[in-house]
Every structure is written in structure tokens, then in C-alpha cells.
């Protein structure tokens, strides 16, 4: 009986995990007006709040103020996915993949997917994992290094750098690379940065050390 209940929870959790990946991964951003996509629901920084040139203390404060709704939205949806067992399923299926590659458990996968679109969603959900005791201090340091390098890589790259690939020179030659290759390089170096932190943590951070 217990095995049957455990199997049902795993199935429901796996479905919830897939839904979380779709929601935070931007897969459904063009489906039904983006109602199943985190970045679409979170919205963008309003143009009328931007100061001249995009700088200044007031502009920075107002920008930071607009981050609160996206953080709240991310935490709310992670709580829903967790209720249906997504984090447990992620730990079951993805730990054998993430642990050898960058030294973090599979339970970090939802936060990882979220960080590809939003630095705020990634950092807030990671903090939640640490606060709830689901990841250790060492794992948090490694995961933070992974997120810090090329944060929100999909959103930032597609919005800021991808258009450059379509530009051409005076002779009509355009970029010879692709968006997928660029994102792949960024992802590889995110893994590289995480493993540098992994080496540092292994050598200099004690097992009983905790954040101050």
C-alpha cells in the first residue's frame, strides 16, 4: 500500500516538475498569450519609470521596487509546485545528473530553470531552498556561483545580444554563429564557474561552517 502511494506521489510530482520546467523555462511564452510563462506574467520594467539615460539613484530605487512582484510570483508558484511534489521528483530524477556535473542536488533544478529567465526568481527560490534546509551551505555557494555567471542568460541574451547576430558588414556578411551556440557557450562557462567554486568550497570551507 505504501509503495503504491509512493508511486502515485512520484507520478504527480513528476507531472508537477514538468509543469514547473515549462512555466519557468519559457517554453509556453507564445501559447495563449503567455499565461503559462513566468517572464510574461512577471512583466517588464515600465518605460515611464526609466530616468534619462537609464541611470540615477531614483531610477535604481524604482527599478528595485519593481522586482518585488516578480520575486513574490516566483516564490508563490514554487510553493504550488512543491505542494504537488515537484521538488521531491526533481531530487529523485535529477540528482544523478546535477550532482556529478556541478555538485548540487536535483532539488535545485526548478530554481536553476528559473534563473535562466530571471535572476530575481533564481536567487529568491535558492534562498528558500536554503532556509528550508533542503540544500547545504556548501551547495548554496556552488549554486550561487552557477547563477551569478551569465545570470538570466536566456532573457538577457535574446533581448540584448541576439539582434547583433543579424547585423551585416559593408559587404553583406552577417554573423557566422547561431543563438544556440552562443547560449551553449554561456552554459558551459556557467558549469565551469560552478566547478571552480566547488573546488574552493572543498578546500577552504569547513563541513560545519555556516553563513554569518
Outline of this structure?
The protein is mainly alpha-helical and 212 residues long. Helices cover 67% and strands 0% of the residues. InterPro entries: Gate_dom.
Sequence stretches where pLDDT stays below 50 over 5 or more residues: none
Mean pLDDT, nearest integer? 80
Number of helices: 9
Write down the secondary-structure element order.
HHHHHHHHH
Percent helix range: 55-70%
> What is the molecular shape?
globular
Molecular structure report:
The protein is built from nine helices and no strands. It is globular and about 65 Å long. It has one domain (2-45, 57-164, 175-204). Helices cover 67% and strands 0% of the residues.
Outline the fold blueprint.
Blueprint: H1 2-25, H2 38-42, H3 57-83, H4 86-102, H5 109-117, H6 119-131, H7 137-148, H8 153-161, H9 179-204
Helix pairs in contact: 1-3, 1-4, 1-5, 3-6, 5-6, 6-7, 7-9, 8-9
Organism: Lonepinella koalarum
Keywords: Membrane, Transmembrane, Transmembrane helix
Protein name: Nucleoside recognition protein
